[in-house]
Amino acid sequence: MGGLPLGGPGPLLILLLALVIDATFGDWLDRLLPDPAQLAKRFCNAADARLNRTERSPTDRLLRGALVVGALVVIAGATGLLIAWIGGHGRGWLLELLAVLCGLRGRAAWTRIRAVRRALDSGGAVAGQAAIQPLTRRHAYGLDEHGVARAAVEATARAFARKLVAPVFAYALLGLPGLLVWTAVDGADAALGSPGVRHERFGLTAATLDDALNALPARLAALLLALGAPFIGAASLRGAVRTMARDARKHPSLNMGWPIGAMAGALGLSLGGPHRDGGVVITEAWIGDGRARATASDIGRALALFAVGGLLLAGLVALLMTGLASL
């Protein structure tokens, strides 16, 4: 955990403050504060264009990709250590709070997904396709209205795990260096971790490290979504637990099947499934055994579950802070 600032709040109180500020002003801060994951993504995209040449051998491309990710992790960790050191002196904790806010993007992700619901309500499938395109790796313009809604619900589960739970987990466990390393790996995976021939070797390190770092946070996110289900109308805790336990491993990702399974089971939906990429049908397993014909209202229910899960996460941080204070 991060060091205890002299004369300032401890790391868990900083984290709790950051969660409250992000939930309240996250949309506004998203436009002002740099996003470390996006910076890492740009770094990796530039390295990809320069170093990932098709004429090089698979081993050479693997080593070059590993060096890119390794350099990114070192830069992120060193930056986190420096800011944490500054945060341990006087009012330097305010800089650490700002750094934590840079890594938390829960409210911003929530708002982008809400925009998909509004687009579906106002403009149907065409407007929904444009709104969902940045939030899914699927071919957005091959999705009908129900496909857009399913993709948005899946994006909600992913965002809860990756933009809220994972950075909170990383900071609580390893302080600011852990948080910035996670956001760097998140950006590297977004740039290089997609399946395909180009990144099969060059992006292998990014994808593998992302899977390793997200293993526990993804499962914690699934648990929080399941526990939040009783607070959402017609959502099911039992369905969430049953579906994630049965179907999580069917998802192409080692980790994202857990929160997506919890979301599908809680809301009584079937997510994932076959989809078209141009003229090619991509076969993926269904997650859940509920309705596949998701609607804009299901996106609203998913966003409500996201919000309740965020409250439970904040409560968990407060409980941990209280428990440590009493020791």
UniProtKB/TrEMBL annotation:
<feature type="transmembrane region" description="Helical">
    <location>
        <begin position="62"/>
        <end position="86"/>
    </location>
</feature>
<dbReference type="InterPro" id="IPR004485">
    <property type="entry name" value="Cobalamin_biosynth_CobD/CbiB"/>
</dbReference>
<comment type="pathway">
    <text>Cofactor biosynthesis; adenosylcobalamin biosynthesis.</text>
</comment>
<feature type="transmembrane region" description="Helical">
    <location>
        <begin position="164"/>
        <end position="185"/>
    </location>
</feature>
<dbReference type="GO" id="GO:0009236">
    <property type="term" value="P:cobalamin biosynthetic process"/>
</dbReference>
<dbReference type="Pfam" id="PF03186">
    <property type="entry name" value="CobD_Cbib"/>
</dbReference>
<feature type="transmembrane region" description="Helical">
    <location>
        <begin position="303"/>
        <end position="325"/>
    </location>
</feature>
<keyword id="KW-0472">Membrane</keyword>
<feature type="transmembrane region" description="Helical">
    <location>
        <begin position="92"/>
        <end position="110"/>
    </location>
</feature>
<feature type="transmembrane region" description="Helical">
    <location>
        <begin position="220"/>
        <end position="241"/>
    </location>
</feature>
<comment type="function">
    <text>Converts cobyric acid to cobinamide by the addition of aminopropanol on the F carboxylic group.</text>
</comment>
<comment type="similarity">
    <text>Belongs to the CobD/CbiB family.</text>
</comment>
<dbReference type="GO" id="GO:0015420">
    <property type="term" value="F:ABC-type vitamin B12 transporter activity"/>
</dbReference>
<keyword id="KW-0169">Cobalamin biosynthesis</keyword>
<keyword id="KW-0812">Transmembrane</keyword>
<dbReference type="GO" id="GO:0048472">
    <property type="term" value="F:threonine-phosphate decarboxylase activity"/>
</dbReference>
<keyword id="KW-1003">Cell membrane</keyword>
<protein>
    <recommendedName>
        <fullName>Cobalamin biosynthesis protein CobD</fullName>
    </recommendedName>
</protein>
<dbReference type="GO" id="GO:0005886">
    <property type="term" value="C:plasma membrane"/>
</dbReference>
<keyword id="KW-1133">Transmembrane helix</keyword>
